[in-house]
Every structure is written in C-alpha cells, then in structure tokens.
Design a protein that fits this description.
Elements lengths: L68 E3 L14 E6 L4 E6 L12 H14 L7 E3 L2 H4 L13 E3 H10 L3 H10 L3 H14 L22 H11 L3 H7 L3 E4 L17 E4 L3 H4 L5 E9 L3 E10 L2 E10 L7 H14 L7 E2 L32 H31 L1
Antiparallel strand pairs: 1-3, 2-3, 2-10, 3-11, 4-5, 6-7, 8-9, 9-10
Helix pairs in contact: 1-5, 1-6, 3-4
C-alpha cells in the first residue's frame, strides 16, 4: 500500500504511482470489501446481518448498474489520480449524475453515515419530539465512546444544538451517543436510520452503528450517500450546521475522581472538512469519515455561478503528493465544467419515486425544512381531496334539484 501523508518516503525515492482500484468486475456489488480487523466479528451466539438485496433494475438508471467509470465521453477524461474505489459527481439541484465510478458498489460509510443519523434527528425536531434547547447531561457511555470526540465529560451539560453541531462539525462519537440515547437508544436509532434509508430508496445502505464505527452489516454506496446528503440539504438547519467553520463547544467541571484535575473550559472546535476550512471557493459543507475498514470517505457540496455540485468519495486514501482534498477539488472542477444537460443517471427522491425535483435554495428560510419523506401522499392531502369531492357532489345535487323544480313548473 502506498504510504500515507505524514509518512515520508526515503530520501531521493520517487513517489509511487497513484492508481485507482479497478472495479469493472463488480467485486462489491453485494458486500463491502473484506474487513482488515476484528471490528465486524459478532459475539458468540449472534449472527451477522445478511447482505442487502441488489435492486434490478438499478436505482437511478440502467447505466448505473455498471461498476467501472460511467461518464459522457464527450466531456473528456474523468479526473486522474483518484484513489477512491467508488465515487460520484452530480448536480445537487436537478439530481442529474454527471459521472460516477462503481456508483452502487457497497462500501463502509465511516462517519458519513452521520448525515443519515442527522436526518433522523432533524425529523424528530420537526415533529416536536426533540428540542434544540433541551439540556443533556453527559453519561459515561458518551465520554468513553471510541473514535473522534467533541470532548464531553462527567458533569458536562450540553444542549441538543451543541450535540448536533458537534456531530456535524468534528464528527463527535460522544455526541452521537448522547443523541441516540434521546431517540430511545442505539437499537431504536438504527431502526429509524434504516427505515429512513429505505424511504429514500437508499437500498445499498444498512446502518449498524449511529456513529459510523465499523460493525457487521454496515454498508452504503456512492449513490446512496449522494441521495442521503441531497435530502439533508433540503433542511435549513442542516445547511447551517454543515457550513460552520468552527463552534464553541461547552466544557465540563473538574473531576473529583482525578487528583489535581481542574475545570475543563469550553473550546473553539474546527470543522474536519478542510475544503471548508481552507476556503475552497463556494464550499457549502461536507461530512468526512475514516476507519481502517472503510478507509477515507467524504460527501459534500459546493456552489459556483449559481450551480451546486455534490461529490462522494469512498474507500480511498491520501497518498504522497495526492491528498484526498486535492482529489475532491478535481472532482468538483470536473462537475462544474460539465454542461447542465450532462446525465448518466439520476438521484431519485422519495417524494415522487422518480427523477428528483430542484432542491430549495441554500438561502431559503427556515420554513423550508422538509417533512419526513415516506414516498406516500401526506394525510392532509387526502382530507382536502375528500372535502373537494363532497363539495362537488353537493353542487351537482343542488343543480339537479333546481332543474327538476323548473321542469315541474312547466
């Protein structure tokens, strides 16, 4: 494997060639690549979830059933030096897919699954079953969570806004734990996440942990991450949080069980999205991820000249002279160069089960929050239809009686 950034090559050594994994033979059509550690080993007596069915025809268009590069040859070569096994570039508003590689290949999402988790939280906020101002006291399972952390601690008190922001800005697994607890626990949270994925037709997706830590059955695809992120971008609160460069996260009091400990003050945390942090033009926000099994993952959107492009990167690496951020920039540049009518497939939406409609502008008011997508008509729409039908029937009866009365007078 090529050395990671931060592990220099020997003096005078030439950088290794950057190669994109070959996926034309569809090695990940059914399941993600083999795990490299024991994170997906299930407990004795337990069984791992089976692989998800493979939709036929593929969601989004027949061309997306290919596992190699899918692109319009008239646009020239796709970006070079992409280390991701699977990737996708699409117009965020129209849903037209500009280019992709192994779009329905199944890979582990790492922390990009937190976008799906955030949709479940935003749904709860919209329903009124969760409030941004509710104060949550940290629990031991929060501050002891594995992986990236916002720095929750014993005795710490945090609003749900703090926790949701920490989830998006620095990918805090401690925040994920505290939020899942409010949704009824991990099992209830995963049920809600997987139900939401099915409603969106993200049929390559199965969440096994809310945070994105690897576990048996964890799966998604470049295509699914794009439609999940696109759905999240309909919500003004998500757009606000995913675009934050930094946020002051609360501290917690000194621990009496730690001799000499002092109060832990609030601190200014910074986004893990370097495209946003380093000022990539038009960057609207994005979600990063990494585990040993998932490798690097990313989903995010940028805007240029009124056009918004979303990209997904999965199962890739930063190598010497070729960072994952450089690769992302080349994908955005390719997407913005493509004519608006470029289309090799479509990002579907649960609202119509067909081609996606334009998304609310990033400048839309807060009232533009999306209702949970169920793929069915809202109950109120049926009430209106029934009422209109009754009114029409009454009018018809009235006209008939009037006509009969006129006839009787003759």
């Amino acid at each position: 494997m090529a050395p990671l950034l931060g592990h220099p090559l020997p003096a005078n050594a030439a950088p290794p060639p950057v190669t994109t994994p070959v996926t034309d033979h569809c090695p990940h059509r059914v399941s993600p690549p083999p795990a490299v550690d024991t994170s997906e080993v299930v407990a004795p007596g337990m069984s791992a979830p089976g692989p998800l069915p493979v939709p036929d025809p593929p969601i989004g268009g027949t061309r997306l059933g290919a596992c190699g590069v899918v692109a319009d040859p008239g646009l020239g070569a796709v970006p070079e030096r992409l280390t991701s096994a699977g990737w996708l570039i699409a117009d965020l508003d129209t849903g037209k897919i500009i280019a992709a590689k192994d779009p329905h290949g199944r890979y582990r999402p790492a922390s990009t699954i937190k976008v799906l988790f955030s949709l479940v939280i935003l749904d709860a906020i919209d329903r009124g079953t969760m409030d941004l101002d509710t104060i949550v006291t940290a629990a031991p399972e929060d501050w002891s969570a594995e992986g990236d952390s916002c720095g929750m601690g014993p005795g710490g008190r945090y609003t749900n806004r703090d926790l949701l922001t920490g989830l998006m800005v620095v990918s805090g697994n401690d925040c994920a734990s505290a939020l899942a607890r409010q949704l009824g626990g991990v099992t209830a949270t995963l049920t809600a996440m997987n139900d939401r994925a099915r409603a969106l037709q993200a049929l390559d997706t199965h969440a096994s942990t809310p945070s994105g830590l690897d576990a048996a059955g964890m799966s998604t695809s470049p295509y699914d991450l794009a439609i999940i992120y696109r759905e999240a971008m309909r919500n003004s609160l998500f757009r606000e949080l995913i675009a934050l460069h930094d946020y002051r996260f609360p501290g917690y009091p000194k621990r009496p069980d730690v001799p000499g400990d002092k109060d832990h003050p609030s601190y200014l945390m910074q986004t893990s999205n370097h495209l946003l942090l380093d000022g990539y033009p038009g960057m609207l926000g994005g979600k990063t991820g990494y585990t040993d099994d998932a490798q690097k993952t990313f989903v995010g959107a940028a805007e240029r000249d009124g056009r918004r492009v979303v990209i997904v990167q999965m199962y890739g690496l930063t190598v010497e002279s070729d960072s994952y951020w450089d690769q992302a920039e080349s994908m955005y540049d390719y997407g913005f160069r493509a004519p608006p009518d470029t289309e090799v497939g479509r990002l579907v939406t649960a609202r119509t089960r067909e081609s996606a409609a334009p998304i609310t502008s990033a400048a839309a008011p807060k009232a533009a929050h999306a209702l949970p997508s169920t793929g069915t008509d809202h109950p109120d729409s049926w009430s209106i239809r029934i009422l209109v039908g009754l009114c029409a029937a009454l009018i018809a009866i009235g006209l008939l009686l009037f006509a009969l009365r006129l006839f009787a007078r003759r």
